[in-house]
Amino acid sequence: MNTILITISDERLLKLQQVANELNLSIEELVLIGIENFLARGEFSSPNTAKNCLNNNAEISTEVVEKFYALASDWEKQVSGLSSTVQMSEHPAYQEIINMGTKIVPLLLLELKNNPLYWLSALSAITGENPIKPEQRGRVKQMASAWIEWGKNQGYAIEDNV
Question: N or C: which end of the chain has fewer CB within 10 A?
Fold first, then answer.
């Protein structure tokens, strides 16, 4: 096991603590999720690459894929300083993503593997479902896994080797 020393401002540490507390995670777990997301992002930075990762049973038009990733990118930039996931999900770009409806569920499931913090409430808002068991609450990876499993059961399966 290796150790990484990170120096951050008091303000950023406070934001990390707030987000970690909201998600029932330690700061270390939150930072590791962020690092994993960053590393995974290099593989899926292009909407066309993301579309290619979807199974044939999850056909999505190029326009929808491009709109989703444009909105998601704008949203991420604009909420990067927020610590409240509630405020983040109330942002107009996030709401527009939700308004895109069930056709983007496969994209959300794909992105859930990369960014488990971001898309849980969007999936719930779009589908009206909540496959997360009470014992999984606050455990971001388990919550994401529950949604991915739900997606597979609903026919929204994405490639396992993503």
Answer: N
